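User: I've been trying to design a sequence by hand for this structure and keep getting stuck. Would you show me what you'd pick, starting by listing the structure so we're on the same page?

Assistant: Good idea, let's start from the same input. This is the structure you sent:
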């Protein structure tokens, strides 16, 4: 078995049919916020179940302590859409970061997992989703992220640590500008 090249689990991701409603629920009921809503993704390549496929979705993240909470609204063919189409909502996958996607793939192969979906981005970051069980009930997202992405997550974590308990959204660019 190859050495596990990924770090600790740091995120739990939820599939939701409506991102805006989910942000309301998480901020009002679970006391998690504020959320950063990704304005879009600069994907230069993406795949879904072994075929080149543009994977479209909306996403927002916040933190509860050091745990990142990600909300994903599927917007087309993907493992995310499959989950909702099966009548499910809620926890979909866990995430960890790594330094090397090829080493991660070798480790996943060595433990009997399989790649389900992934993407490469214009900044050089990569993500991939791996089924860690044959029935695909445990999915691990692995992110190989550039420093500016880690910096964005650090800013979101800081905003959550200092959250006023009321604001729904966080825009780090607005914070930097003024």
């Amino acid at each position: 078995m190859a050495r596990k090249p990924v770090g600790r689990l740091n995120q739990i991701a939820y599939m939701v049919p409506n991102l805006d409603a989910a942000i309301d629920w998480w901020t009002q009921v679970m006391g998690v916020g504020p959320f950063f809503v990704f304005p879009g993704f600069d994907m230069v390549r993406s795949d879904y179940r072994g075929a080149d496929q543009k994977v479209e979705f909306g996403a927002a993240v916040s933190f509860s302590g050091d745990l990142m909470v990600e909300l994903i609204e599927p917007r087309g063919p993907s493992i995310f859409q499959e989950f909702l189409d099966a009548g499910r909502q809620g926890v979909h996958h866990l995430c960890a970061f790594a330094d090397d996607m090829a080493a991660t793939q070798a480790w996943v192969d060595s433990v009997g997992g399989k790649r389900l979906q992934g993407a490469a981005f214009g900044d050089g970051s990569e993500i991939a989703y791996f089924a860690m069980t044959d029935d695909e009930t445990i999915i691990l997202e692995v992110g190989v992220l550039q420093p500016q992405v880690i910096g964005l997550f650090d800013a979101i974590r800081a905003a959550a640590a200092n959250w006023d308990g009321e604001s729904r959204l966080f825009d780090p660019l607005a914070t930097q500008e003024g």
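That's my pick for every position. To get oriented when you compare it with your attempt: The mean pLDDT is 94. Residues 13 and 70 are 5 Å apart (CA to CA).
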